[in-house]
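Hi! If you just cloned this repository, the fastest way to understand the data is to look at a raw example. We've pasted two of them here, unedited. The first protein comes first, obviously.
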Amino acid sequence: MKIFVCVKQVMSRDAALRVGGDGLWVRDDGVAFETNEPDTFALEEGLRLREKHGGEVVAVTAGPARAASTLREALAKGADRAIHIEDDRFARADTHTTAAALAAAIGREPHDLILTGLQSDDAGFGQTGVILAEMLGLPHATIIMKIEASGGYLRCKRELEAGWFQTVTLPQPALLTIQSGINKVRYATLMGIKRARRKPVRRYASTDLGIDMAPRQEVLRLYQPQQGKQTEFLEGSAREVADQLLSKLRFEARVI
């Protein structure tokens, strides 16, 4: 089974974020970066499927030069090789542009399964995986909690709302977006880190793949919400005050 796992480098969740001077994204100077958490679960699931069914796991990312560290981590954990689509503009690229880059690279090779995280920790749109599936003409399913592969088909358990689940069966090749918590992510071992240095990494420039970097979605304004305090006194009988408080909690604060 040839499995491609799409991974993204994002700013650390512990980083102190500051809005950039243009008001369109956050400043990345002096900020630590890490692998997008949902993508780590996708990688782990790909490695487990390879261990069970054989084949190859290929880690793929579209990002600036610094995103190479995310690929090295994936190789250290057990991915067989990696593909890096390198362009500084991917740091702010929209989901359509990112998906187009991934499709251009993955589409050059045969593939049985493509895995992505459900969404990214930074933008959190949850669109890249499904757009990628559409571009490659693949059946897809989202929010996957369990995968069973047999006879060229994938039996998948999807998480729905309110504790409900759905089981779907897809033919291969297919694309799945993985929910965090589907498995227990492994750590990179010292031996794995040493082996990663010898594993191949194929690099493409965006021009090599003919990618149109013009965005389809744009952030118009990014800002930090203003903090403030407001005190309001409720007057009337105990019943009237209770009714007013209930109304404000339900329709203004929306906590009940």
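Ok, and the second one:
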Amino acid sequence: MKKQSNLYIIIYASILVIVVAAVLSIISTTLKPVQSKNIELEKKQNILYSININSNMKDVEQLYEKHIRASYIINYKGERVSGNAFNIDLRQEKLKSIEEQKLPVYESKLDNGDKKIIIPLSGKGLWGSIWGYISFNDDNNTVYGVKFNHEGETPGLGAQIATPNFQKQFIGKQIFNSNKKFVSIKLIKAKHESNNIYQVDAISGGTITSKGLEKMLRNCIACYEIFLIENKNLK
């Protein structure tokens, strides 16, 4: 067969495509367990960060095992349902009706004996998904810590939701008012009142991301409202 012929070129190109596809498939299959493990460790790091515990890839599993004492799934009525909380994809659950959603809950215990409740968050920013975790003191009202992250918000603007300086604003804020009504936490474009426990400063120049984060907090925490009210002072 002549190397310059069209048939030769077609056969050669076809074989090359098949070989490259096979190699990429093998690489993908080989790396998948490693990628899955890294995703698991990153998730555990984020959960720990929400209770103000920093970790790295070497000590995250030990710290997670030490501080996360229980995890389970509830429905919107606050009732426990079967399943593995860690494996729940909240983004997929948010596509379902509230009656069908499975809601993960994590219980933690700090070195001083204090207990915290941690719940996951999922929403939309300007350019893509945003997500995170929020933890509460045993009153299930006062925020102990948060961890937010994003898919592709603008660096220096919306991407600031992932920075410690932005996140520490939420510590000590409350989601229920004095009348026990759920009010969530608002992100205020103008500088918020320093004594207002239901507000934090929005991101300057990141209005849409701020609104997305505010909506995420309100919508996600609202699903846990009955649970948070009925399960204070956990044992």
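That's it. A detail worth noticing about the second one: The radius of gyration is 23 Å.
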